[in-house]
Amino acid sequence: MKALATTLLATLLMANPAHADNQTTGNTTMIDHAHDFDFLIGKWRVHHWRLKDRLANSHEWIEFDGSSTLWMTMDGRGTVDDNFIDLPGNPYRAVGVRGYDPKTRTWAIFWLDGRNPHHIEPPVVGNFQNGVGTFEGDDTFNDKPIKVRFTWSRITHNSAHWEQAFSPDGGKTWEVNWRMDFVRAG
After folding, report:
1. Which run of H or of E encompasses 29?
2. pLDDT in tens, 111-125
3. Where are the domains of the chain?
4. 91-97 long-range CB contacts below 8 Å, 24 or more apart?
5. Residue 54, Cβ neighbours under 10 Å: how many?
6. Is 179 helix (H, G, I), strand (E, B) or coil?
7. Where do the H-state alpha helices sit in the chain?
8. Looking at domain 39-184, what is its CATH homologous superfamily?
9. Other C-beta atoms within 10 Å of 123: how many?
10. What pTM does this model have?
């Protein structure tokens, strides 16, 4: 019985990158995703790859560096990260704000770009499954409706990978247009 409990605990921890709080209801274990972003607490060096032109069949990537610092808010049910994005010719700061809804077990991620500080981007919503975080939402690009997807993967204590993709056709096809590799800075 102890081996079964250890196996179950290991399986649950693998499903959620940050040691989830779990509830058992009948024969179903419900994962509490409140700790999905615990891995991101702290200071990070970030290497970026961004498509020069989005949704334009571009294959030219721009590489640059940046930094990010994340802290918890709302008694662990929220996060804020302060980002420096050293985009060549147009460096800027931005803020990511996340909030967790325990009823839906999902996070909403909002983005505030310092180049347009009176406009917050529509949220992407989701959580982590099997060590990968997938968050999707609706937005516009060049005045046309698109779907946006953020994906977190390859998470360790000292590193993580993030991607952003756009879909102009309701999610049938996706174009990855921004990738970031995070390395812990402190």
Report:
1. strand 28-32
2. 999 999 999 999 999
3. 39-184
4. 96/70
5. 17
6. strand
7. 2-15
8. Calycin beta-barrel core domain (2.40.128.20)
9. 21
10. 0.83
